[in-house]
Amino acid sequence: MLSIDFSLLAYGSILNLTRHVFVIAKIVSKSES
């Protein structure tokens, strides 16, 4: 049960991180052009 909670937490963290990277890349590309 604990391992399942950990994988869910890790999955959520990865999704959150990916979203932040995507937003930052969008802002950077917008400011460059």
UniProtKB/TrEMBL annotation:
Protein name per UniProt: Uncharacterized protein
Gene source species: marine metagenome
